[in-house]
Amino acid sequence: KGDGMQVIGEGHVNYVLMYNMLSGIRTCVSRCGAKISRPLTDDDFKARHKFSFDIYGNELTPSAKYDFKFKDYAPWVFRELRENYFCIDPADYLVSLTGEYKLNELLSPGKSGSFFYFSKDLRFIIKTIHHTEHKFLLRILKEYYTHVKQNPHTLISRFYGLHRVKLPHGRKIHFVVMNNIFPADKVYEKFDLKGSEVGREYPEEKAALALDPTLKDLNWIKRGRSLELGPEKGALFEEQLRRDTELLKSVNVMDYSLLVGIYKVEQDARDTHLNRRGTMYKFSPPQIKRKPTTTSKGSSPEAAAMRKAVRTSAPERVDASGSGSRISEEDASSAAQADLFHEDEGGLRARDDYGQPLERIYYLGVIDILTPYNTRKKLEHLWKGLQHDSHKISPVPAVEYGNRFFDFIRRNIRGVGKVESSNAEAP
Ligand code: ATP
Ligand code: CA
Ligand code: CA
């Protein structure tokens, strides 16, 4: 036990749950994906598809090892998000998550009681969420979707699916599938930043011993960290974060954080060595190897077979105007745009105030965005406010939370507006 991860294999206490989650995802994503793409309607945001699994199987579901029910929420909306905005190849998605029924469980997640499961190749994360978070995501789905559509570079968590498993005795487990902000093959100094100081410290003595700690605001300050993004990317990042925070304020949410991973480029060799020895992650590296192919999309034999099973071939996809070419242009442009903060090894290269690259890469994302400022939080605010300065504690109303969050991060961005932009153009 400790930090790091553990593979869930047969016999693990959560094996049945994992099996059910993956079987459900596989079935519902394949079914939706097999249909011809069409423009979204308002009803798609409220849609729910139910599946019932048992050992026999039926026309909707294949046979499964266990009895359970599965519910897929707003499948068309998430499909659209995955394929058109987050540029996830449908076959890759299923292969990564369900190619083999194996997930890695994060051993020391947050305080909320959520479980985190990483796909075998670590690209995707399944997070179990509370029923209130689930209801909240459904309530803001339209705003979320619109925001992603209008902000292809958004830093907010990418949600790929929202599902529910119901076990025979009636227990319901809600979960989301989202992106892992950190590519698998590196070691990071990680921070979870809220812009709050109260209770926002991971004890440094503990951090020195921990395998993969996520540090907090006070560690960030004490270690003298800043976001060295250079004038150009710094300004873009600040603007994107401002827009993202505006959305979160407008839907009355709080408690989210900016997750920051700092990867030191010169440590490359040592880090690889660490990973190989399994010091960093307690499981083997991804085994799904991509063969070089003529297409840019993943085409391992596994993926190819999966693609065939999953959906009709690409040319059959049509958009509202009935022209196949418009869609592929859109796909191409959103793919190019998706790279703004992920250009350098999937992250953002650190730059000095003149825009010159430094030996670090940042991986950034806004996570844990499903806590509305509700009654429970209001009470917590009152109670904590009796003990501390009521503006410095973390549960404050959403607008105040957002402003404090954004101000904190903005103060920590270096390089913006410090140098003439001509210097920033240097390669
Ligand atoms: P709490 O409500 O107590 O903060 P939580 O259970 O809601 O906890 P999160 O804040 O979502 O959990 O995440 C806990 C930790 O898991 C993060 O600090 C981070 O280390 C890791 N984590 C969460 N989401 C991601 C992600 N998308 N990519 C990479 N790591 C993540
Ligand atoms: Ca959190
Ligand atoms: Ca949370």
TrEMBL record:
Keywords: ATP-binding, Kinase, Nucleotide-binding, Phosphoprotein, Transferase. Pfam families: PIP5K. GO terms for molecular function: 1-phosphatidylinositol-4-phosphate 5-kinase activity; ATP binding. PANTHER family: PHOSPHATIDYLINOSITOL 5-PHOSPHATE 4-KINASE, ISOFORM A, PHOSPHATIDYLINOSITOL-4-PHOSPHATE 5-KINASE. It comes from Schizopora paradoxa. This is 1-phosphatidylinositol-4-phosphate 5-kinase. Signal peptide: none annotated. The keyword Nucleus does not apply. Transmembrane segments: none annotated. Residues 9-413 form the PIPK domain. It is an enzyme of class 2 (transferase). Its EC number is 2.7.1.68. GO terms for biological process: phosphatidylinositol phosphate biosynthetic process. Gene3D superfamilies: 2-Layer Sandwich (3.30.810.10), Phosphatidylinositol Phosphate Kinase II Beta (3.30.800.10). GO terms for cellular component: plasma membrane. The keyword RNA-binding does not apply.
